[in-house]
Amino acid sequence: MDPVQVGVFIFITAAIGGLTYLSCRNAPAGDRGSDHDYFLANGGLSWYFVAGSITLTNLSTDQLVGMNGNQMLLLAWWELAAVVGLLILAFVFIPIYYRNNCTTTTELLQRKYDNKHIRALISVLFLLGNLFIFLPAILYGGSLFLKSTTGADFSNLFGERLFTGTAIEVDSTILIMSIAFAIVGALYAILGGLRAVAVSDTYSGVLILSLAVLVVILALNAINWDFSGVPAERMNMFLGDKLEDGSETPIPWHTLLTGMIFIQIFYWSTNQTITQRAMASPSVEEARKGILAAAGIRLLIVPVIVVLPGVVAYKLYGDVGDAAYGMIVGDILPPILSGTFAAALAAAVLTTFNSILNASAALYVCDVHEAYVDEARDVPKLSMFVSIAMTVLAIALVPIFASQESIINTVQQLYGLLSMPILSAFIVGLAFRNVSAWSAIIGVITGVLVYAIFSFNLYRYVGVSPEQGLGATLAGIHYIHYMFVTLMVSIGTALATNLLVFGRKAEFTIGAPSATAAPLKD
Known about the structure:
Layout: H1 3-24, H2 35-39, H3 47-58, H4 61-70, H5 76-99, H6 105-113, H7 116-150, H8 155-158, E1 161-162, E2 170-171, H9 172-222, H10 259-270, H11 272-278, H12 284-300, H13 302-305, H14 308-317, H15 324-332, H16 335-372, H17 379-402, H18 407-431, E3 432-433, H19 437-455, H20 469-475, H21 479-500, E4 507-508
Antiparallel strand pairs: 1-2, 3-4
Helix pairs in contact: 1-9, 1-16, 3-9, 3-11, 3-12, 3-16, 4-7, 4-14, 4-18, 5-10, 5-12, 6-7, 6-18, 7-9, 7-15, 7-16, 7-17, 7-18, 9-14, 9-16, 9-17, 10-18, 10-21, 11-16, 14-15, 16-17, 18-19, 18-21, 19-21
C-alpha cells in the first residue's frame, strides 16, 4: 500500500470522528435518557442532518460497489425510483408518524391495529433482514472496495484464505477488514446514539458525494468520453428479460410497472433505518425539508455515480463484476485522492453499519423488550448488548456474501422475503378500518411463504421441475414481479381472513389517522 494513501486515509477518518465528537459533545442530556430521546436524538436533528444522514445511510458500498459491479446503466432505475419513495415519505408517512408521536415505524401498526403482537412481528422481520442481509453485505462490500483500491493484503499474516475446505471459507484480508469496520461502526452506535450517527453521516456525505462526482469525471476522461466498444445492452435503460449471454436482466423494463415503486415505498417510508432520521426533527416541516433535499441529491447526483464508473470499467477492464469500482478508483485517482476516497468510503460503510445497528436496537428495545420482557431502565446499556450481538453475528455471515456473484442483486432478492409482507401490514392498517391484527399477521406470514416458494423455486421439492413446463415458466418470472404478487397476496389474504375467519368486514378509508393518537394497548 502507498504510504501517502494510508496516511491520508488515517487523517480523514480521524477528522470525521473528531468533527462528529465536537458537534455532539454539547448535545442535550435527553439524548441518553428515554428510548424516545435516545433513539430520536431528543427531536433535535436539523434538516441538513436529516438530508445527510438519509443520503449516506443508503449510499454505501452495496450501492457504489454493487451497482457499479453490474457495469450497466440499467441499475440507475433503483435510484431514480427512490425519489418517488422519498416524496411519499415526505408528504404521506412523516405527518402520520409525527401525529402519532412514534419512536419506531412499527409503533404506528400497534396504534392502528390496537395490538402489540403485530408490532413485534414486523420488528422481528426488520431485525432478521438487518442481521442476515444488510449488515454482512455492507461489511463485505466495504472490505472488497478497500482491498481493490488500496491493494491491502494480510495474507502474509493469516494466510490467503481462512477456514479453507469449509462452507465458510473466506479471503483473510476481507474478513479482517470486515471485523475492523464492524467494531468501529458498533462503537459509533453504542457511544453516540442517533445524533452521532446522523452528524457523522452528514460530514462523510459531503466528502463522498464530492469525490464520487470527481471519480465520474476522471473516469470519463480516461476513455475520452467515448463509450464505443461497450455492448449496447450495457448502455440501454430499457431491457427485456434476458441479456445477450442468456443471463437474467437485473431490472427488465416491465418491472418498473409492478414491484419497483412498492419496493421504494417500503424502503423509504416504513424502514426504521431510514425514517428514524426524519422522525428525529423538531417538526414535520423540518423533517420534510431534509427529505426533499435528500430526494434532490438522489435525483441529480446518485444515479450518475452508481452506474457510469462501472460502465467505464467495463471498457477498460472487461467484465470484472463487483471489483470494478475499486479498480477504477485505484487507477484514476492519485494516491492522496484515492486515500481520501478510501477514507470517505470507509466512513460510508461505518455510518450505514451504525445506522442499521441503532435502528435495530430501537426496534428491539421499544417493540420487543419493553412489550414482552420489562421496561428498559437503562436504554443505552440495553442497546449496547443488542448492538454487540448483532455485530458478532454479522461478521460471521460475511463469508456467505463473499460467495455471491453480485452484492446488490443478492440483497434486493433476499429482502423480498420481508419487504412486501411488511408493507402489506402498513397498507392494510392505513387504508382500512375494522381489520383484525391477526388477519394482517396471517397475511404477512402468507406473503413470506409465497415469495420464498416462487422466487427461490422451492416448488421443485414437490416434483415441479424449474427446467420445464410450468416450473420453467415460474422460474422465468423476475423476482421484482414476484414482489408485487407477494404484496397483493398478503393484502388479499389479510382482508379475506378478516371477513371469513374473524367475521369482520374491512372498511376502506381515505386519509391519515386521526390527529389524536390512539392509546397503546396489548
